[in-house]
Amino acid sequence: QVRLVESGGGLVQAGGSLRLSCAASGGFFRPYAMAWFRQAPGKEREFVAWISWRDGSTLYTGSVKGRFTMSRDNAKNTVYLQMNSLKPEDTAVYYCAGQARAAHSGTYYQTGAYDPWGQGTQVTVSS
Question: For residue 29, what pLDDT band results from cuts at 50, 70 and 90?
Fold first, then answer.
């Protein structure tokens, strides 16, 4: 019932910035957490960032730590991913996803821990 829609992707040169948004609509929405994943052609979907809905604490994969910042606006049912110092290897389709409840330890980075998923937004970083 709940639908997630990403926006904000586009084409940017290396070193530039983009801000992605993911808005939830269509029903009751109170996740345990939200996450961003990305998927490049021919690659598996990769964990990027995670945020607790309750307290805003975050986790990041090592390759984006210090460059990306995830945040949320509970009143707007929206999460954001601020991406700075972008690199060509950041090129991918970026997806947001909801985590309904606390998962077993060590599964936050696995796609199976999340439902629903957005349709994705393309981020292309040129060199």
Answer: confident
